[in-house]
């Protein structure tokens, strides 16, 4: 979205989303409220309800912004991948590193009240597409897409939370990625080889994220 095409309404909504992020990431803010948000955004309280029906809806919208940023970064991470197995391996590593290498992202996803279903449904939809492409290409062997997607996404979310909480170290990621690739029917040797390839974390844009910058 170019600067010239951004409307006043879009800018106001974006300023509210930025304010929500700033408050959620402020360790001194223990309880988030609409008055805090509108004060930070510099708008009247009634303006908030022109864009969101509730505080929960605004928090969920911030989660959507975070997931869009993650998807944007993933596109750069998978560039040049040899096949779809490598695409999934790179995506899994980036996703698992995210919560510990990008602490603000981990805080938004695991401590801000963003519905965990939002993260799960977004990952699941993307994964089902990846599985279908991989099966068609002959690099994945999956008999039940839905069951495999459930186990895969559950593993990623659980491991990501453990990495964020410090219950897992970053050096555990190759083992997790190997397990994920094996779920997709990748042979053990190839799964271990791809999981062991060093990969640097691709950082997000600085917080607070602006939705306008994602267009």
UniProtKB/TrEMBL annotation:
Supply the PROSITE patterns for this chain. HTH_TETR_2 (PS50977)
UniProt-listed InterPro entries? Homeodomain-like_sf (IPR009057), HTH_TetR (IPR001647), TetR_C_40 (IPR049513)
Put simply, this protein is called Unannotated protein
Q: Which Pfam families match?
A: TetR_C_40 (PF21306), TetR_N (PF00440)
Which residue intervals define the domain HTH tetR-type in the entry? Answer: 10-70
A molecular function (GO) held by this record is: DNA binding
Q: Which organism is it from?
A: freshwater metagenome
Sorted alphabetically, the keyword list is: DNA-binding
């Amino acid at each position: 979205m170019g600067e010239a095409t951004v409307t006043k309404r879009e800018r106001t909504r974006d300023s509210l989303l930025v304010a929500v992020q700033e408050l959620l990431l402020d360790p001194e803010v223990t309880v988030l409220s609409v008055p805090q948000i509108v004060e930070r955004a510099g708008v009247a309280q009634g303006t908030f309800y022109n864009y969101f029906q509730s505080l929960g809806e605004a928090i969920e919208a911030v989660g959507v912004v975070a997931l869009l940023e993650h998807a944007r970064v993933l596109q750069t991470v998978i560039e040049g991948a040899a096949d779809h197995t490598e695409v999934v391996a790179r995506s899994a590593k980036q996703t698992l590193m995210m919560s510990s290498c990008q602490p603000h992202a981990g805080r938004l996803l695991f401590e801000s009240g963003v519905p965990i279903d939002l993260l799960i449904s977004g990952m699941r939809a993307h994964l089902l597409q990846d599985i279908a492409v991989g099966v068609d290409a002959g690099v994945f062997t999956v008999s039940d897409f839905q069951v495999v997607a459930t186990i895969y996404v559950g593993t990623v979310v659980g491991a990501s939370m453990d990495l964020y909480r410090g219950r897992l170290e970053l050096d555990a990621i190759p083992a997790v990625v190997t397990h994920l690739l094996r779920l997709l029917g990748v042979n053990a040797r190839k799964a271990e080889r791809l999981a062991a390839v060093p990969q640097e974390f691709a950082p997000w844009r600085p917080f607070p994220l602006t939705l306008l910058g994602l267009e």
